[in-house]
Amino acid sequence: MSEERSLNFIEEIVEEDIAEGKHGGRVLTRFPPEPNGYLHIGHAKSICLNFGLAKKYNGKTNLRFDDTNPTKEETEYVDSIKEDVKWLGFDWAEELYASDYFDKLYDLAVTLIKKGLAYVDDSTAEEIAAQKGTPTEPGTPNQYRSRSVEENLQLFADMKAGKYQDGDKVLRAKIDLASPNMLLRDPLMYRIKHAHHHRTGDAWCIYPMYDFAHGQSDAIEEITHSICTLEFVSHRPLYDLFIEELEIFPSKQYEFARLNMTYTVMSKRKLMQLVAENHVEGWDDPRMSTISGLRRRGYTAASIREFCDRIGVAKRENMIDFSLLEFCIREDLNKTAWRRMAVLDPIKLIITNYPEGQTETLHGENNPEVEGGDGGRDIPFSNELWIEREDFMEEPPKKFFRLGVGLMVRLKNAYIVKCEDFKKDADGNVTEIYCTYIPESKSGHDTSGINVKGTIHWVSVPHAKTAEVRLYDRLFKVEDPSSEEGDFKEYLNPESLHILPNVYIEPDLANAEQGKGYQFIRKGYFTLDKLSTADKLVFNRTVTLKDGWAVKKS
Ligand code: ATP
Ligand code: MG
């Protein structure tokens, strides 16, 4: 059982609200992605938080697409977001769209105009910015601010009816041009955009701004706890003010620190550039910090949920080490991944005292971490084997517990062999290694009495299948590419993908299943790539067995 952790600050708020009987003790959260890209691991944190809270307090969570910006949003993104949330293991109460509220939002804007709290402004974006003042100087009202309610109602209706071009007019809230909070200096509520919307088509040519859509959508759905990231702290007064003036359901906003992680970028806009400029294979490239990329890489939903749980919910921004995510996936796969053998950099080993042409079937368990081994598989053995080139040395140093003339190792699930000799080609490269085996040393039936320190993996030459194996490294060379000088893409790691076209794998791996993790013994955790076929197997390395970076960096 996992140890009890103390409540995070949002859980404390929810518990207080429930204790006070606020909203009848009801908890309704929402996850509100804008469908303008694929979700990343930062979104996973928000998903785990919103859905996790609801689950813990017998509440519900809505999936609401914040689709108020027609030019950037697409149905492809909506579908991928739904797939990712489901895959992470969460069910939403309702699938909703801010665009479904366009009529209601329009009516709410009319309500504010009628209360004298909104006006149509003909100024350009530049004029509005100039009139807003600075943090130390108040803004100055223009002639449009004093328009009558009737005129504003008419102009707003004309905006909606398509009488104006993009940028001709905006609807602004009439709040306080001298407010120390710049967002309260008559913020925009609506702008004109003659653009096709992925759901409402051409029905609208005016679209609400975030600040006049988000809180109102929360209120329409009667969201009790609207959780967002810290950059919205300064928006909260506006969030509260609109709700109060409109006398709608009093949703409340709470902010937490967004997830930042080393060696990656975490913004849809930046991830989009990597895709558009072909720095990666797509949104689900296994090097991407997207949920679909991590899934393709072999990350499990459980490991991502565990990661989100471990990083917790903070009120201050920080940077999480990518290694923590790797730690979580290693822990999970150690318990679930089936062990198999694959030789990434092969060299041939010949057993001179094993009859040529003879084969035998050995047995290996699927996972020694599981009681009973989680079943097992047959492993064919013969006198010719592939082993890793690095497991042999011409002149082995002391404590090299692998092969070199005179040294002994155990072949995993098979026999102990002793290296007798080797052959080199004209260039001096070792091409073959000759060994003898100890017939009495068969794994599980060893009566040889010989103890060896090393065990190496192998694949029988006549039985081996081949696969392409893709090894990945960090996508960026620096910890925080976004904070470096110049374009973040200058810091891409040119060595982030390494393809091994011809890896020898034990025959049982031809049955590997999509979505399942395999430990290639001594080489890491792997999973089938989505492009893998029966004719051409392709494996992605999810993660190495140990944290190689901890060593490299020091
Ligand atoms: P991006 O800049 O990547 O597009 P966003 O905040 O604009 O991010 P949205 O689709 O608007 O993306 O986000 C949906 C929800 O996910 C929001 O509530 C947002 O606060 C949250 N979220 C986005 N990025 C992170 C992050 N890095 N850590 C935690 N929560 C995040
Ligand atoms: Mg956004």
From TrEMBL:
Pfam families: tRNA-synt_1c (PF00749), tRNA-synt_1c_C (PF03950), tRNA-synt_1c_C2 (PF20974). A motif ('KMSKS' region) lies at residues 265-269. It catalyses: tRNA(Gln) + L-glutamine + ATP = L-glutaminyl-tRNA(Gln) + AMP + diphosphate. GO terms for cellular component: cytosol. It is an enzyme of class 6 (ligase). Monomer. This is Glutamine--tRNA ligase. It comes from Mucilaginibacter corticis.
